[in-house]
Backbone:
């Protein structure tokens, strides 16, 4: 997905496949946390939100995942624009060794982002590693979304907890202690320099 984002345009979207959660027999295909991480990533990628699973067997947590209007709004914003990986590398090797610490923790984290307006961005921090991790997006990472010093400060809204986080005054955004195997944070960043002007 990281290599094909530039080919997306109105009417042509990358389709990384179905959202997975609970099978018809009620067994989890992935953990609820992994299901929510996948949904968050699909929202940033502007991917089709097609659920593969039994709605009848879904937990309240999973139903809440698939009905989060704030996350869905990220998916539907800016038609024809797909999000991109802005930090981290190819985590395929990490996924192949998901139960061992073969690869360093930094190889198992990434940051994905999508510009959704002149002064608004969605940013997702992701941890696929075997241990909790802090994940950051520095000035170089933010620049890939065209977030410059003039955009600061940034108001940050966590789209899962619905919390408004402390104002971001430096060109660095971080997610702290993301759980292993799918820990993530999905933020909506808004330039407060524009809203206060």
Residues:
């Amino acid at each position: 997905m990281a290599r094909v984002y530039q080919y997306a345009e109105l009417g042509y979207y990358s389709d990384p496949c179905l959202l997975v959660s609970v099978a018809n027999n009620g067994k989890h295909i992935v953990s609820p946390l992994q299901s929510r991480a996948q949904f968050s990533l699909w929202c940033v990628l502007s991917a089709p939100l097609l659920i593969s699973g039994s709605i009848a067997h879904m937990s309240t947590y999973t139903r809440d995942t698939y009905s989060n209007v704030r996350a869905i709004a990220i998916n539907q914003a800016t038609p024809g624009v797909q999000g991109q990986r802005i930090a981290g590398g190819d985590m395929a090797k990490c996924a192949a060794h998901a139960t061992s610490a073969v690869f360093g923790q930094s190889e198992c984290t990434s940051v994905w982002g999508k510009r959704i307006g002149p002064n608004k961005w969605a940013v997702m921090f992701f941890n696929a590693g075997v241990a909790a991790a802090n994940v950051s997006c520095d000035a170089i990472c933010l620049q890939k979304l065209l977030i410059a010093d003039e955009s600061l400060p940034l108001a940050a809204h966590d789209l899962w907890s619905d919390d408004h986080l402390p104002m971001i005054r430096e060109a660095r955004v971080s997610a702290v202690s993301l759980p292993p195997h799918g820990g993530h944070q999905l933020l909506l960043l808004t330039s407060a320099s524009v809203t206060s002007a």
